[in-house]
Amino acid sequence: MKPVKALVLTGYGLNCDHETAYALTLSGAEAHRIHINSLIDGTVNVKDFQILVFGGGFSWGDDHGAGVVQAVRMKTNLGDKILDFIDAGNLVLGICNGFQTLVNLGLLPGFDRNYTQRSVALTFNDCGNFRDQWVTLKVVSTTPCIFTAGMDTLELPVRHGEGKFYAEEAVLHRLMDEKQVVLQYALPGGTPAERQFPFNPNGSVDDIAGICDPSGRIFGLMPHPEAFNHPTNHPDWPRIKEKQKRSRENIESVPTPGIRLFQNAVAFIRDR
Amino acid sequence: MTHRLEIALRPELFDAEGEGIRRKAKDYFGFEIHSIRSIQVVTIDADLSANQLEAIRTEIFTNPVTQLSSYDPLGIDFDWTIWVGFRPGVRDNPGSTAVEAVEDILGLKFAPDQSIYTSKRYCLKGGGLLIKDVNTIAGELLANDIIQQWKIFSMDEWDPASGTGVIIPKVILNHTPKVTTIPVHSDSALKGISDERGLALNPADIPFIRSYFVDKKVLAERTLIGLSDPTDVELEYISQARSDHCNHNTFRGLFRYRDLETGETNVVDNLFRTCIEAPTLALKNKKPWVISVLWDNAGVARFDDEHYYVITGETHNSPSNMEAYGGAITGIVGVYRDPLGTGKGSRLVMGGYGFCVGPRDYRGDLRPHLHPRRLLDGVIEGVRDGGNKSGIPTTFGQVLFDPCYLGKCLVFVTAVGLMPAKIMEEPAEQKKTSPGDLVMMCGGRVGKDGIHGVTASSETFSEHTPAGHVQIGDPYTQKKMHDFLLEARDEGLIRFVTDNGGGGLSSSVGESARFSNGCDIQLEKVPLKYAGLDQWEIWISESQERMTVAIRPEDLDRFLALSKLHAVESTVIGQYTDSGKLHITYDNAPCAFIDMDLTTSGFPQWEFDAQWLPPERRGLHEPVLKAPGNCRTLLLDMLSRPNICAKEWISRQYDHEVQGTSVVKPLVGAQRDVPGDAAVIRPVLGSSRGLAFTQALLPAYSAIDTYHMTACTIDEAVRRLVAVGADLDQIGGVDNFCWPSIQFHPQHNPDGKLKAAKLVRSCLALRDICLGYEIPLLSGKDSMYVDGHLQGRYQETHKVSALETLQFSATSIVKDIHKCTTMDSKVGKDLVYILGATRNELGASEYYSHLGYVGLNVPEVVPEAFIPLYRALGTAIDREIVASAHGIYRGGLGVHLAMVAMGGNLGMTIDLGSVPADQVHRDDVILFSESAGRFIVTIDPQHQNAFEDNFSGLSFACIGTVAEDSRFIIKGIDGTNLMDVSVEVLKIAWKKPFGGLI
Questions:
Q1: Tell me, what's the ipTM?
Q2: Chain A CB contacts of B66 below 8 Å
Q3: pTM to 2 decimals?
Q4: Which of A96, A145, A162, A234 is catalytic?
Q5: Which residue segments constitute the domains of chain B, with CATH numbers given?
Q6: Contacts A–B by Cβ distance under 8 A
Q7: How far apart are CA A163 and CA B949, in angstroms?
Q8: Nearest chain B Cα distance for residue A17, angstroms
Q9: At how many degrees (to 10) do helices B232-242 and B504-516 cross?
Q10: How many angstroms separate the CA atoms of B846 and B341, rounded?
Q11: pLDDT tens string B209-221
Q12: For the domain that residue A62 is a member of, what is the CATH number?
């Protein structure tokens, strides 16, 4: 079987590369951490990979809007190669700072397969501060997103200061109509958060936490699936464990929802 | 040609930054401003065409979805507008990244005299503000005049065409670098020069320094290379190396300790040697997991067979006191360079913090440089940006309020790294320089920032402290350097690495050259931020984000190639030699020629008189206090005390789970809002082994006896680790002392001898308790001179000395993370146990403090008596028969039962009559005594027999049950209900003080 090769970007202040590569490896991919400059100088070619991950961090310090300078650098130096990568049917994942970069590149939302138009934004949290907390996410059932296939609700951590999803009314309608909204912040039971803090931690319009392009192959989300790579990452795990012990449930070892998301990506490439 | 671009959020969008300022203006000063809109200002000092300007405006600086921008002033309505920008020479991180982006998109390179500067403009509307109010907002909320400048405009005086005008904070020195020779014909002349130049040389050192430079043999050698009298470069070097900050003269001093009660006298020669080094070396022999201690930037201990962990702790008090944000971010980013510069380098995996500040709502007469509320906000934000942008989880921290920190705040920062045990078959913890190795400077450039930072923190803060020592750390530049150096390490390129912190190159090169025994440095090769620095300034500047690295000449090309890949600047600035001399030149002209061993030999030891008066003799006694009738209100009020209450807003701002390693988070429990005993991470992602980390601070006990303060602080840290399931036999400690000045002076420090005795007692306890619990001190630092001089109501000046403070950080191994416990009760009907005996130890307790007393009976620690209990708890956790475990700390049993209940969101029924107590017959004493050595544990009733067998022969008892609802009921010794209150009500009280903060 040919390996599924995943490229995780590093350098210039990105910082979730180790655990993202680990999550991909757990999911069956061959993961490589590659410095942005190695792509720019041609030492590494993105066309040798099938999954491209823009991970979390503070690229270029995020001083001029999160992900903005990274998007400029990528567009100026690698724009066409990335478009070719997408045309070849591959997968692109943007997590947190990576999501911010994808929307600034215009890879998302990618209306009409135009992958260069900026039409949505991730801006400063309404709460006015960086925030680390776990959120409940509802997967929109009609989404074509490859990564969330078979998932209904999941919990993941958010860790950002600029995660408020914003777009004009018409753009929002179009996102909904074209089923590009993938994840929405929800109450613990799974019902919509309706912008209620802290369940919607940043004031995102329509509780949007993640969107995909019309093909479902480009996916960006603010929460961090790679930070739920082990059951003990979940804040409630000691409580869950204690209750399971009491009920003498057989505790099956199942992949965490964070890992499932990467597994879906690997399976898609393998099966295509 | 300059261009000023203004950028703002579209008017229909909520301006969170502006709103945050509006809220603070109301909270801090009571101003009712209607709205504040913020504008980012980018000032471009470069010749760009109209097309180029438009390209960067749309492509980089303006988000088409959310922002508007213009090269003319934006027409946002205001009554007042305030422009805030950096002063010249202050690090402008956004300005630097803007240059990178502009160069990239336009495909050009900025000339050395071209740059981009960022600033901000705020539009204030409503509230009927007067000019003095606007000045208050500008000077006390938006800007700090040490690093920033501001301009205020009213609507009437605003010119919509020119706006704020164009301000370019460029440094222009117009100075030709010059080495000055300093005549040393007498000690008094040298003393004069020391004072004049701010060298802070210790008067006792001066004759020795002078004797070196007038020595005939030395003079003869110096003449040969063209030097005679010492140069400013040399004296500055000696001053840095001899500063208390670098050399720890106080801890290495001679203490004549006298107990005034018994008349006993005891000379302690060198506290570091006797109380830190000797016990740690003894323990290292016993514990093979201790890998490398007492010499490097951080201590090294074994994590598993293939990995070592690395830890150190620092303080950054003086700079944070001056400029809270800049001081704190520089502190955290700086301490992160220590593990990076330990052995051949380690990857950072975790950070911690401790903040000691004045009361957040202080309304007294003293005028600290920054009000505690603003200071705390700035410190929190500095550690937030420094940690988050470094991609390192901040997993644990604590905040302590006390008026004694009005004089100088304390900012503790702790860093934990991880290194492979071997790099290319060589031990990773070892490093050395060899003759012929190149001296590389990597990372940021050198400017005037931070000059005399080390010597300033060795002096008491006063209005004359040079503001120049404040800087702003840049985690972005450092993160690039961190990634680069680790790659270079893994390729085997690094022979030696150390950070440029206090003392700059002077310290890092000086210390690294001791291994090879000499170096030749060419100062003109050091890359500068701007021209015109004198040679001595280049040598001692503390410009941040720099490491000094030794590499073999044959590795230079590969090293520079990797450096370029990571966009990090690396420069050869000299070569290590075995000449025995530190030899510095500038354009071939000699600047310094000093024996390598000068700064480590022959200097006179500092001496201190230490006089101890036991607390009774100082007039301390137990208060005459009858038992309270209303324990319910008392407990609620205790929970609302600033040092007990919830501080969730701080933990949430810190990314505590980046790297994907989180096992036990800073906040735990059903509602994820109660602080855990310790943090646990899984630093090697593929392994089930964990690393637990915690900290403790109990300065209140110093008011009675620093011996017991120290003992209790260490005991608390030990219990915190045991409570989460960490191994009692692999605890490593880090001691961070913060002490007021101990040098007696009849007018300036009349109680100096007592403070010195308190330091001796604290160190003795550190030795005794660490030996008792077998805790090697992996690392530690001391920060003396925690005093400030504050103006009062009548312009009189008060000296405010901090309580003698020790932060103790501790780590240990968790063999299997799946067995970790947390402190929250888990299931209704579970049994509640208390482990350990409660004694009448309310001295300096939170309870006494609440009632306005100090008392006398401070808690005492008896390691040999406590260890069997801790070991038994460890066994119970390992057998997975414990549902929750929590130490009883500040506030006592009542407060910590409430914590366990709030954690589980389940009530409890507790019978105080069952609590194992030693001579205690009062409910309030049982509830609030802070006796050490105790835990609260909840267990599944089906494990009752196994659990009780496990503790047989030890002091423990079942004291109640976990409720299935939220009723929290405590019955007194006589069986009556002392309180019946819901967990919700407890939580409201506990969250009341800071619950509204985000």
A1: 0.97
A2: 121, 123, 166
A3: 0.96
A4: A96
A5: 2-154 (3.30.1280.10), 631-645+821-998 (3.90.650.10)
A6: 201
A7: 53
A8: 8
A9: 80
A10: 40
A11: 999 999 999 999 9
A12: 3.40.50.880
